[in-house]
Design goal:
Structural class: alpha/beta
Strand order of the largest sheet: 3-2-8-18-19-20
Oligomer: single chain
CATH class: Alpha Beta
Number of domains: 1
CATH superfamily: Metal-dependent hydrolases
Length: about 425
């Protein structure tokens, strides 16, 4: 039986139905950690502790992460990825389907579930693929996979054929699941590695045009309207994407969308020719970043996801042209957004909690639980050092940044899964 730990919260504030209330002298009892998932060699005792001058939030929920297992253990594992999530304040993460084997059959997604049950520190909700092998040519068996998945996604690739996506939407709707779409028209990519903007032109690098994203979103929105499918757009990055989703919502289309911390806080005037600035979609222009912030404020953008996508050091050491697409983000997301958006008065702290914890659960049908909690010291500062990460990935555009907001504790199902 787990040991219990008594935690006393002094001069803290707790999020409660859209507002913060003072908490002083409140004692809560949690199941103690038996080990620190990020440092398994370090045993942890169950001594009672006191936490003061911190903020207590519902533990966060990220609907877009790449845990890389099974198939790519050298990049990440479910153990290390969920340890990173716990360090970042997350209780729920949704894992993408670009694995080996691809979760396109009951057997294949079952292999992922076996590892989740054995190794996960936080709750993991796997997506099944939309098409067999993520190849875009044959749909999966939606009926068979529905009880085992959170939704259907070919993330990493867009579904290129209109008829295939329409059929997928009908299949997902029939089993009561959501389509989670990576939108990318491959005919418009032309080998691009970063946004088709001023940096690309100045450095002679092939660019990725904005239409490759928003054009496919516009197509999918028409199909979602036609089929009535629940539809979610991954990692939007362009001003046009915000506009077409805003218009679709006004028409009553059942659509939600996410963006990521790097798109809200960086633009292509801030990047360098280094793999830590390369992800898909790319960091766009200042006008796009401004439109994303506007979309976040007016509710067009429903949630923030990290698109946590670890790679090996070698895969990220080839500059913008040669490196693999993807950066890590679970351990820095809150601090980046708090530092760059909340402290600068762009959004409120309540809004940040809404888009990181409340809205994702509402859309994906998860309860908001009193025994899921993360505790942050908002006055604590630190310099981002990827060598300190729990994730195997080390590539982040925020390397060396000074940030505010350190996670002191994460509680999942009443059990402490991380404390600092």
């Amino acid at each position: 039986m787990s040991k219990r730990m008594q935690v006393t919260f002094e001069k803290c504030k707790r999020y409660d139905n859209g507002r913060f209330v003072s908490v002083d002298g409140t004692q809560l009892s949690f199941a103690a950690m038996t080990y620190d998932a990020a440092n398994p060699s370090q045993q942890n005792d169950a001594a009672d502790i006191s936490i003061s001058n911190c903020y207590m939030f519902p533990a966060f929920c990220d609907v877009h992460v790449h845990l890389r297992e099974p198939g790519f253990f050298y990049k990440e594992s479910i153990a290390t990825g969920t340890a990173a999530a716990a360090r970042g304040g997350y209780a729920d993460v949704f894992s993408m389907a670009n694995l080996d084997p691809v979760p396109d059959t009951v057997e294949n997604i079952g292999a992922q579930w076996d590892i989740i049950k054995r190794d996960a520190t936080v709750r993991v909700h796997p997506y099944a693929a939309i098409t067999m092998g993520l190849a875009g040519r044959e749909l999966v068996d939606f009926d068979a996979l529905a009880p085992l998945c959170a939704g259907f996604s070919d993330d990493g690739k867009g579904v290129q054929q209109d008829a295939m996506m329409e059929a997928a939407m009908r299949g997902a709707k029939a089993v009561g699941k959501i389509i989670v779409a990576h939108c990318e028209d491959e005919s418009l990519l032309h080998g691009g590695c970063i946004h088709d903007g001023e940096f690309a032109a100045a450095h002679g690098l092939p660019g990725i045009c904005s239409e490759s994203e928003w054009g496919q979103i516009a197509r999918d929105l028409k199909l979602a309207e036609k089929t009535g499918c629940a539809y979610h757009v991954c990692h939007i990055s362009t001003k046009e994407s915000v506009a077409v989703i805003r218009e679709a919502k006004a028409r009553g289309v059942n659509v939600t969308c996410e963006t990521a911390p790097h798109y809200l806080t960086l633009d292509d005037s801030m990047i360098e020719d280094h793999g830590r600035f390369k992800m898909n979609p790319p960091i766009r222009a200042a006008a796009d970043r401004e439109a994303l912030i506007e979309g976040l404020l007016d509710g067009t953008i429903d949630m923030i996801a990290t698109d946590h996508a670890p790679h090996s050091a070698e895969e990220k050491a080839q500059g913008l042209l040669g490196s693999r697409m993807g950066v890590v983000g679970l351990e820095t997301a809150f601090a980046v957004l708090y530092t760059e958006l909340v402290k600068k008065g762009i959004i409120s702290l309540e809004k940040l909690v809404e888009v990181m914890a409340i809205n994702p659960r509402k859309r994906f049908g998860l309860p908001i639980k009193d025994d899921d909690l993360c505790v942050f010291d908002l006055d604590a500062q630190y310099i981002v050092n990827p060598e300190d990460f729990a994730t195997k990935g080390r590539s982040t555009p925020f390397d060396g940044r000074e940030l505010f907001g350190i996670c002191r504790m994460t509680v999942v199902d009443g059990k402490i899964v991380y404390k600092n």
